[in-house]
Amino acid sequence: MTDTSTDAAPAPFLTAWFDILDSDEPTRILDLISDDFTLSILFSTGDGNATDFAGDRAALVGYLEQREKGTRTHHLLSATTLGQDELFLGEVRRGGVPEASFVAAGRVDDHGRLQRLLIGRSSEICFT
User: Which of 90, 103, 41 is nearest to 66 (CA)?
Assistant: First the structure.
């Protein structure tokens, strides 16, 4: 995924999250979420349509099941951490070719687990 080590990453949790998502076992991210986890992933492919994967653990499982495992990778452009909140601006690449930009915001609870996740993705804007 990123060229930044997790220890030095300005958003260490989300950096590790996307590393796992890009791995051979992306379902390992399910071990990183809190019991009261909620998410919304707004996924646009640029054709005027968008899909919103919203809800709790079941919504994340549904998102993982429909993903093309191993075809897309997530790359860090910039990130920051503010208290328990991490913000991550990235680029999705398919076969090394930029496909979309995305922004992710996550809140990590006091136990080091992801409690809230909001991701927006669009192929209509490029930050690189």
Answer: 41
Question: Which residues lie closer than 8 Å to 19 by C-beta, 6 or more apart?
Answer: 1, 2, 6
3-state DSSP of the chain: CCCCCHHHCCCHHHHHHHHHHCCCCHHHHHHHEEEEEEEEEEEECCCCCEEEEEECHHHHHHHHHHCCCCCEEEEEEEEEEECCEEEEEEEEEECCEEEEEEEEEEEECCCCCEEEEEEEEECCCCCC
**How does pLDDT run across 27-50, given as a tens digit for each residue?**
999 999 999 999 999 988 778 888
The full set of domain ranges for the chain reads 6-122
Q: Quick count: other Cβ atoms within 10 Å of Cβ 61?
A: 13
87 strand-pairing partners: 80, 105
One-letter amino acid for residue 95 of the chain: G
Q: Residues, the chain, total? A: 128
pLDDT digits (tens, 9 = 90+) for 50-92: 889 999 999 999 999 998 877 889 999 999 999 999 999 999 9
Domain 6-122 coded CATH 3.30.430.20: no
